[in-house]
Amino acid sequence: AAAEAAAVLKRGGVVICPTDTVYGFLADASNKKAVDNIYKLKKRPKSNPLSVFVSDMKMARELAEINEKQLKMLKKYWPGKYTFILPRRKFAGVGHPGIYGLDKKTIGLRIPKHVFLRKLLKEVGKPLVQTSVNISTQDALNSPGQIIATFEKSKLIGLIIDGGDIKN
């Protein structure tokens, strides 16, 4: 399933799958159209930023300025269910990956613990924007049945991975 999900993400599609906490919408953080599709699916204002899954500390440090004190704390809680808001790394010149949120001063990052997500991040090799599966301001949908009932008609979703009900 990770290879299939990675293929959808690499094509600019949106994937729904379980995370450490809830079901999440995932998209390639370097694909503006894919990121925009998550905002459309959620009916979420663009002023409300999305957080980003990264595969490891190296990828985190490519996106955020992380000092030694922060690094110590991150290593304590990652991989896991915590997202940390960190100062955004400043990119100089051209050639940097056009990662979502480049214009922001901060970025929310997480290294997930979820085995499937870790495999998927490795397979894709890029940061993935992520957010809970729901319409903005409504409760997160934690069962495949609810997700399918709400989003089955959407052409913006490339793949839904059924991980059973998630109890938080």
Helices, strands, pairings?
Blueprint: H1 2-10, E1 14-18, E2 23-28, H2 32-42, E3 51-53, H3 57-63, H4 68-77, E4 84-87, E5 106-110, H5 115-124, E6 128-132, H6 144-151, E7 157-160
Parallel strand pairs: 1-7, 3-5
Antiparallel strand pairs: 1-2, 2-6, 3-6, 4-5
Structure notes:
- The chain is built from six helices and seven strands, in the order αββαβααββαβαβ.
- It has helices spanning 2-10, 32-42, 57-63, 68-77, 115-124, 144-151; strands at 14-18, 23-28, 51-53, 84-87, 106-110, 128-132, 157-160.
- The protein has a seven-stranded mixed sheet, with helices on both faces.
- Helix 1 crosses helix 5.
- The chain is globular.
Provide keyphrases for this structure.
7-stranded mixed β-sheet; alpha/beta; 33% helix; globular; 168 residues
The CA-CA distance between the termini, in Å, is 24 Å
Largest β-sheet summary = 7 strands, mixed
Count every beta strand, where a strand is a DSSP E run of 2 or more residues: 7
Report the structural category: alpha/beta
Mean pLDDT across the residues is 90
Number of helices: 6
- Radius of gyration, in Å, reads 15 Å
Q: Strand content of the residues, in percent?
A: 15-25%
Q: Runs with pLDDT <50, length 5+?
A: 92-96
Instruction: Give the strand order, joined by hyphens, for the main sheet.
Output: 4-5-3-6-2-1-7
**SSE string:** HEEHEHHEEHEHE
Helix proportion range: 25-40%
Shape: globular
